Amino acid sequence: MTEIVLASKSQYRAELLTNAGVEFATESANIDEREVEAPLIEADLGGADIAEVLAIAKAMDVSQRNPGKTVIGSDQTLSLEGRLLHKPEDMAAARQRLLDLSGKSHELNSSVALVKDGENIWTYTESSIITFRDLDPGFIGRHVADVGEKILTSVGAYQIEGKGVQLFEKVEGDFFSIMGLSLLPLLAELRRLGLLDQ
User: Fold this and answer.
1) Distance CA 90, CA 32 (A)
2) 75 a catalytic residue
3) pLDDT at 106
4) Which of 29, 54, 91, 114 could staple 75 via S-S, CB 3.0–4.6 A?
5) Are 63 and 130 in contact (CB under 8 A)?
6) Which of 75, 100, 146, 174 is catalytic?
7) Which pTM was predicted?
8) Which of 151, 157, 156, 166 lies closest to 129, judged by CA?
9) Distances from the Cα of 155 to the Cαs of 60, 88, 121, 150, 158, in angstroms?
10) What is the pLDDT of residues 121-148, one digit of tens each?
11) Where in the chain are the domains?
12) Quick check: 151 pLDDT over 80?
């Protein structure tokens, strides 16, 4: 029986862990993310801090139902010109998101937390700066149609590991963190905890 639970329904995060050889179960957190973040935004917390609080909250929720297991919680936030953005709700919103990001740099904050028996035992947050090239509106429309609805699974309406890489002019940050899970620091901590082979 696995000792690790991923508190996420993200296929990308699950694939990263699977490809790294980590044995784990998955269970989605049952929290209202907007409700959790509302007071944080009111308190003027930055995107990195909000990502960390949400990652911990997800892991805490799943930890309640998994005594004795180490739960991985993760979250990403995107900040553009001081605004915190969320996943686009539909294809029209995804097109608008890419128009908004065109020619600009944004901050993508990725946070991961480990919780065991309701105690937060480790967190790690990494911020990346992604600069979009100037995008032609026609290209955006074709790109969104080509990628399809999986574009809605990302806060930025892109996947760096796929055709989304064509949107960028410059990327400053960790590839795995941009994909949604700071894998190298997480693996190091799982080894330190004795949950992975040394």
Assistant:
1) 19
2) yes
3) 97
4) 54
5) no
6) 75
7) 0.93
8) 156
9) 22, 7, 27, 11, 8
10) 999 999 999 999 999 999 999 999 999 9
11) 4-192
12) yes
